[in-house]
Amino acid sequence: MAEENKVILHGFWPSPFVKRVELALKIKGIPYDYVEEDLPNKSSLLLEYNPVYKKVPVLVHNGKPIAESIVILEYIDETWKNGPSLLPEDPYKRAEVRFWASFLQQQLLQRAILVVKSDGEAQEKAIEELFEKLKLLEERIMNIFPEGTASINQENMGLLDIVLISCFGYYKVLEEVLGFKVMDPEKTPLVFSWLTTLLEIPVVKEAIPSHEKEVLFIKYVRQNALNPTAV
Amino acid sequence: MAEEVLLFGVWGSPFSRRVEMALKLKGIQYKYFEEDLTNKSPTLLKYNPIHKKIPVLVHNGKPIAESQVILEYIDETWKGYPIFPKDPYERANARFWAKFIDEKCLPGIFNACWGEEKQHENAVKEACELLKHLENEIGEKKYFGGEAIGFLDIVANFIGFWLGIFEEASGTKLLTREEFPKLSNWVGVFVSSSGIKENLPPARDKLIAYFRSQFGTGSTDATK
């Protein structure tokens, strides 16, 4: 069923959520057109495709839009059966992937964003919670990856790897902007080594934006959050 | 090996009841353990050390947490009644709206019922905007799942039953028939459907009293 397989991704270059979809499409070898959205000035198409959230990413497959990054990843995996699977076959392992993807998203990424956007006491609290949750992940890595993470590569990487990269692939940028270590090989050696293995994979390396560009963007996000301009 | 399915839950929780609805629709035998949330059992903490919450499904000794993750697991493990649609696009649609309900509607509705009094009007307006999306999504369908109850109906159990409880407990009415005729219809059909009605919490008054004791008597309490 490859007759018409028009895939368009509406995105925004620094968005971790968009990054997930880009990685999934690249890993699966799915050709797609990319539309860079100007977020203060969203296209009318985007608003039509995602009227509920009006956000990126939106994947449009043969004219039909899908929103929410993890929903899109599952859709991609179910629709394109050739190429590596993003989720394992076994239902229990699939449940584990879904559980941990939700954990990475809700417990880690949301807190990391809060750390970027706050200061003083609020930031301290967010930092404490972020490290608490990172520690929980560290303690469970051997359950998630009983064989370890050293042999993860482009052919066998999956949804959880993609979500981790989107959350912390730019950890050096965070560390530069915030001035402290976020991914500490001494505090969370297993998470650190999982992440660094992933960052060596060619498709991942290509997908990460330039360090300087990201630093500027995160600085801008932080500044905007701490000193909001017009009311 | 004989199959063993355990469910750790709480009688008044929509999340817990979602799992029971799915198990019953599939005809799966299970053993239920009622948890006391003020005094969680060591077994629960062993099975869900990360979040320490219910519901937890334990299948042949292996635990699964998070109600939506559990529902996906149930549908993938046991054949019979299909909870998810077959088509990937419809599945994506169901997952999208399920996420919307848990991540946006629940907090929005909670805020409208029990948020700060001075934000009350805004919170009600926002909650109604969220419900409007669901009104549009149900459209002319009997169920969110089409002709039969599906994943999204089960996740929307909160809207189907607990919203009414929240409204009574807090005194804030959100789902009016005038503003939401289609969603109101769905609520009526949902709570009287076989497979659902037997699985709703009994003792409505007790549930209302419980939420009042947890969250107060509501944002519209200004004159009391």
From TrEMBL, chain A:
Annotated GO biological process: glutathione metabolic process; toxin catabolic process
GO cellular component: cytosol
Record-annotated GST N-terminal domain positions: 5-84
MF GO annotations: glutathione transferase activity
Keywords from the UniProt entry: Cytoplasm, Detoxification, Transferase
Domain (GST C-terminal) ranges: 90-217
Keyword Cytoplasm set for record: yes
E.C. number: 2.5.1.18
Chief location bin: cytoplasm
Catalytic activity reported: RX + glutathione = an S-substituted glutathione + a halide anion + H(+)
InterPro entries referenced in this protein's UniProt entry, alphabetically: Glutathione-S-Trfase_C-like, Glutathione_S-Trfase, Glutathione_S-Trfase_N, GST_C_Tau, Omega/Tau-like
Keyword DNA damage: no
Cellular location(s): Cytoplasm, Cytosol
The protein's role, per its UniProt record: Is involved in the conjugation of reduced glutathione to a wide number of exogenous and endogenous hydrophobic electrophiles.
Record PANTHER family: GLUTATHIONE S-TRANSFERASE U9, GLUTATHIONE S-TRANSFERASE, GST, SUPERFAMILY, GST DOMAIN CONTAINING
Family: Belongs to the GST superfamily. Tau family.
Name of the featured protein: Glutathione S-transferase
Organism (species): Carya illinoinensis
UniProtKB/TrEMBL annotation, chain B:
Transmembrane segments annotated in the record for this chain: none
Name of the protein in question: glutathione transferase
GO annotations of cellular component type: cytoplasm
Domain of life: Eukaryota
Gene3D superfamilies: 1.20.1050.10, Glutaredoxin
Pfam families assigned: GST_C, GST_N
Keyword Transcription regulation recorded: no
Residues annotated as domain GST C-terminal: 87-215
A molecular function (GO) term: glutathione transferase activity
Family classification: Belongs to the GST superfamily.
GST N-terminal domain segment(s): 3-82
Top-level class of the enzyme under EC nomenclature: transferase
Keywords assigned by UniProt, alphabetized: Transferase
Catalytic activity, reaction form: RX + glutathione = an S-substituted glutathione + a halide anion + H(+)
GO biological process, one term: glutathione metabolic process
EC number: 2.5.1.18
